[in-house]
Amino acid sequence: MIRVHRGNFLYTLNSIRQSLFAYLESELSRHGISGIAPSHGDILHILDKKGTLHLRDLTELSLKDKSTITAVISHLEKNGYVTRVRDGNDKRLVNIQVTEKAATIKPALEKISEKMNTQLFEGLSAEEKNTLFKLMTRISHNVDKL
User: Which domain does 97 fall in, by range?
Assistant: First the structure.
């Protein structure tokens, strides 16, 4: 186990991220889900919660830049998880919506996410989790100031 300190904090965060992505890739494969990378999950989650969205709104909600979102949407569209639909009121605008294929994998994605979160916070009390979340929120605000 890594002892986290100021000198390896960013390394530790990256290591955690890589381990979680590897877990997600393994679980997606085990469930027979292909064409989705772990970094695409937030896009599908946002669309599931918010419904059909304009590309610009999806960009804002995902905190990713437009070129990244465009590439992710193209990938998800190619694999049948989302569709692009021109806005009925303004043909310049593109709406993104999940497909039936995305809806069918939702239960597996929720199960994978729940299992991962349960393991991630195993052994932490409610108070420890609250402290962790408060500290990470403060760190996130500090990063926003960079």
Answer: 6-144
List, in order, residues 6 or more apart from 70 with CB less than 8 Å away: 55
The reply to whether 130 falls in a domain is yes
Reduce the DSSP state of residue 30 to 3 states and report it.
helix
Which residue in 52, 62, 60, 57 sits closest to 98, CA to CA?
52
With H, G, I as helix, E, B as strand and everything else as coil, classify residue 58. helix
* Mean pLDDT for the chain overall: 93
**pLDDT digits over 44-76, tens only?**
999 999 999 998 899 999 989 999 999 999 999
CA gap 114, 112 in Å, rounded: 6
Give the pLDDT band of residue 87 (cuts 50, 70, 90): confident
Residue 1 inside a domain? The answer is: no
CB 18 within 8 A of CB 10: no
Asked whether the CA dihedral 91, 93, 94, 96 is positive or negative, the reply is negative
Q: Which residue shows structure tokens 């990938």?
A: 75
CATH assignment of the domain containing 71: 1.10.10.10
